[in-house]
Amino acid sequence: MASRNRSGSARRAAVSPAWHSSSQRTSALGGPLQKTKIRIREVEKGDASQLATLMCELGYETTSTEMKTRLKLILPNPAYKTFVAVMDGRVCGMIGTLACASYEHNDPGGRILALVTLRAARRHGIGRALIATAEKDFAQRGIGRIALNTQLTRENAHKFYESLGYERNGWRFVKQLPVGN
Does any domain span residue 90? Predict the structure, then answer.
């Protein structure tokens, strides 16, 4: 649980890099993954181009310049946390989270805003390691309720989240508004 300072606000808890062993499969990242370690760490500004590639894997066409702009807004905001998975010296996955106050509850809640693993590195425990890191960070900040969205067509993602204890509990509606006109 997050500790509190004198004003009663939560202090940011540090999350140390986590190491996870991958399975004994072969990947397009470069040969067998046997004994290859997956390191989870907080994102760095220099990761922008690799994060742009990951966003493209999710179907959100993103350039390195666009990701740099996004990170300039996200990184200074303590409500957001971004962790990356590094394997064989390359960022191969990321998770982005948000901690926020709630209209419905007295305590803050957490949201997983993005989770993606490079297609060539999937099914090696990277997603599970990223989720575990985010959950640990949320718990250290005193957040016990986490929500996330996923597209209806991503049935494998639904099964993945359910296998980790997440439950379906609603629908998401989206409307695109004209802006800047």
Answer: yes
